[in-house]
Amino acid sequence: MSRRTLKLGAVLLGVGGPGQHNTWLDPEIPANASVDVNWYIARAKEAEAAKFDLVFIVDSQFITRNSPNHYLSRLEPLTLLSAIAVHTGNIGLVGTLTTSYNEPFNVARRLYSLDHISGGRAGWNVVTSGDAGTAGNYSRDEHFDYPTRYGRALEHVQVVRGLWDSYEADAFPRDKESGVFLDPEKQHALNHRGEYFSVVGPLNLERSPQGQPVIFQAGDSEEGRDLGASVGEVIFTHAANLAQAKAFRAELRERAAAKGRDPEGLLTLPGIQLVIADTDEEARSKEDARLGTKSFDRALKELGRPFGWHDFTRYDLDAPFPEIGDAGERSFRTQANSIKKLARDNGFTLRQVVQHLIDAARSPFVGSPETVADTIQHWFSEGGFDGINVTVNAPSEFALFTDRVLPILRERGVVRSEYESDTLRGNLGLPVPANRHTDARHPAPALAP
Amino acid sequence: MSRRTLKLGAVLLGVGGPGQHNTWLDPEIPANASVDVNWYIARAKEAEAAKFDLVFIVDSQFITRNSPNHYLSRLEPLTLLSAIAVHTGNIGLVGTLTTSYNEPFNVARRLYSLDHISGGRAGWNVVTSGDAGTAGNYSRDEHFDYPTRYGRALEHVQVVRGLWDSYEADAFPRDKESGVFLDPEKQHALNHRGEYFSVVGPLNLERSPQGQPVIFQAGDSEEGRDLGASVGEVIFTHAANLAQAKAFRAELRERAAAKGRDPEGLLTLPGIQLVIADTDEEARSKEDARLGTKSFDRALKELGRPFGWHDFTRYDLDAPFPEIGDAGERSFRTQANSIKKLARDNGFTLRQVVQHLIDAARSPFVGSPETVADTIQHWFSEGGFDGINVTVNAPSEFALFTDRVLPILRERGVVRSEYESDTLRGNLGLPVPANRHTDARHPAPALAP
C-alpha cells in the first residue's frame, strides 16, 4: 500500500440510514440537539480528538411536515460552523450552502470569513436545491429546472473561486512605518459577465489561509456527476456495495481526467452506516432492531420526497406501483427515476417497493470492530473510496468506532495518527490552487527537458 | 430621574470620527485587526466586563480604493458574531445585514441561528446599500433607487419578523415517551405575497430565546426616519450638538407614536467620539493632534463617497463648490444634499467645504473623566439620547472610558452595575413582542374596568 491514508469525515446529526429519522428518540441524544450549539461543539471536539479530517453539516431551506424531525428546526450551517471553529483547532469545517438561492458574492464572503476565523479549515458543500417547494421561500413561482440548477451551480462556483482570487497573498503590506496598507497592483476585480451572474468584485476580504477553501459536492445525476468532475475536490456519495462504490469512484476520476484535471485532486467519501458490537452476531441483531424502528408507514411517506413530496398513501399498496407522470421532474429526479425503474423492472407493487427500500437500508459495515476494520480496509485498498463519512448521532456509538475500530486501522497504517497540516486542504492532501493573477504574472518556470 | 438607565453600545473597529480612517496605524492595534477574530473576541470581552449592552459590527458589500483601509478587508458580520457569541455570555451581538442584496428567508435563518447560539443576544442592524457600485457585485446593472431601497427594506423586515413567528414557543413537545416531536397546530406558514417578496414559509427553525431579535436601524433621510419609526427598536445616529440630538430623538418618538407605537419602545443611540485625558486641556490637545492626522487630501477623496465616489480632486479648490448635477442620487442622497446645501448657503469654495467637514469632526465629548461624565449625563437627562455607541479601537482609549468615566456614571445611578437579563431585549428594557399566532388564538384578557 502507498502512503495514501483513509480520510475521515463526521456528519453531525445526519440522516439517510436505518432508523435515523428518529435519532431524537435516542436516550443519549438531547431531543433538541439540532438547535443546541453545545451539542455540536462537543461532538466536533470528539471527532477532533479522534483526528478526523472534518465535520460536515447538511442543510435544506424548505420543510414540510414530512421532513425528518430534526430538519424541522435546525441551525444554519455556516453560523454554526463559525461557533465550532473557535472551540476547535485542527478539524475541517464543511458547510452546505445552496447555489440556487444564494448570491455568489455573499457565499464567497461567508466561506472566506470562516476560513479566516478557523485558520484555514473551511469547506463548501456545493448543492442545488432539490425540493421544489424551496422556490416559494425565495420569491419565485417556479423551482429552477434541472439544467438551470446545474448551470447556475457551475457558474456560481466559478464566480466564488474568482472572488477568492481577488487579492494576492501579499496584497496587504500594512506597513505602519511607510503608511502603505494595500498594494493596489495586487488587488484584482473579477468583471465576470456570465449566463446567470454578473459580478464585478473585488471581494472585500483578503486572501485566506487556504486561499481556496475546499469544494465538496454530492449529486448522483448526470448533471451532478459532471459538476463534481468539473469543480469537486471531495465527492460525498453513498455506496450500497463495493462494486458500485468502485464504479462510481472510477467514473468520477475518469470524468475529471477528461476535463484535464489530475484525478488525485478528487476524493470520494461515501457516507457509511456503521453498526458495531462485540461480535458479528450481536452487530447483526443490533441492525435488525434498528431497522425495526423504521415503520412501514414512515417509509411510505418518505418515498414521496424525491417525487416532490408526492402523497403515496392514497394508493392501493398491493396494486402495481402507481403511474405518477412527471412528478419529481424538478425535485430529486435521479432518485425518482431509479425508483420508477426498480418498480418497472421487477413488476413491484407499491408495498414491494417500500419494503425493498427498507431492506436496502442494510449496511455493509456491520460487525465486530475487527470485521468492520477489515471491510473498510478492503474497500479502501480495492479503490472503493478515498475516505468515509461517518454519522455522529449517539456519542457511545461514535466511540465504538473511534475507540475500537480506528486503533486497528491505525495499527495497520490505513489511518494516520496525527494531523499533518494546519489546514483542511493540507490534511486531505489536496493540491493548493495558485492564485490566477499571481500565476499569470509569474508563470511557473518550464521543467527541464 | 426615573430608573431609566443609559444604554451602552460598543462599535468594534468603527469609522466616522476624527482620524479613524487610520486606526490601523495605532501602535496598539494589530494592523490586521479587521480580519483577526481574536482581536474582536478580546474587545467584546472587555465590553462585557464593563457591562455594555451590546457590541456592533458595521458592514458594506462594495469597496473602492478610496474605502477606509480596514473596510478593504474584513470579516462578514454574522459569521464573526457567531464566533464571539460562544466566548461571551451576556453582551448583545448586533450585526449589519443589507436588505438590498439578501433574501429575507436567509436573513431570518441566520439571525435566528445567532439568537439560538447566543442564548437570546442577537440584534439586526437593518440597512439598505448606499454605495451604488454594490449593484455590480449582485448581478444587477443598476443600483436600486431610493424609494425601492426603502420599500424593499420595510417589506423585508416585515417578512423576516413574520418568519420568526413561524412557531409558537411550545410548538416542539419533543416527548420521547409519546414520540411527539412537533405539534403541527403551532407551526404556521407565512404565505406572504407583497410588492417585493413572496415567501411561503414556515421557517425551519423554532422560536428563539428572544422570539424576535432586536431591530436596529440607522439612516437620516426622510425614508430612513420613516423606516426607523416603523420598525426600529434602536436607532443608530450621530449627534453634533445637544439641540440636534434632542430634536432627532423627539422627532423619531413622535413619528413612532403617529404610527401607533409606544415611543418607549424606540431607543436612540448616537455614535459618539470620546476624547478623554486627565484634564480638559490635555484632552483638547489630544483631539487637536488626532484631527491633524486626517490630511486634507484624504478628506477631499472621502468627500466623494456620498456622491457615488465622485472624484473631487479634478476641481479647482478655490473656485466655488462645483456643480455636479445629480451625482449621489442613488447613493447617500441625504448626506450629499446636505453638503450641497452647506456650500450653497455659505457660498463656500471646495476647499472651504472640505475644511468645514474636517472641523465638524470635533466632538462634544472631550475632556477629563468628570467633564465627559457630566456631558453624557447632561445630554441623557435632557433627552438627547437613550444611550451611546462608543467606538472601540485602541484598548487603552476604551479603558479610559470604562475605568474612569463609567464608575462616575454608575455612582450617579446613570448606568446600571449589573446585567439585568439574559437577553439583549431584556437588558435594553424593550417590550417582548407576542407571537402573532399565539396572540390571535389566546387574546389577552380584558383589563378590569
TrEMBL record, chains A, B:
Region (Disordered): 426-449
Keyword Metal-binding included in the entry's annotation: no
EC number, UniProt record: 1.14.-.-
Pfam families xrefs: Bac_luciferase
Residue ranges of every copy of the Luciferase-like domain listed in the record: 40-386
Keyword Kinase: no
Keywords: Flavoprotein, FMN, Monooxygenase, Oxidoreductase
CDD domains xrefs: Nitrilotriacetate_monoxgenase
Name assigned to this protein: NtaA/DmoA family FMN-dependent monooxygenase
Species assigned in the record: Amycolatopsis pithecellobii
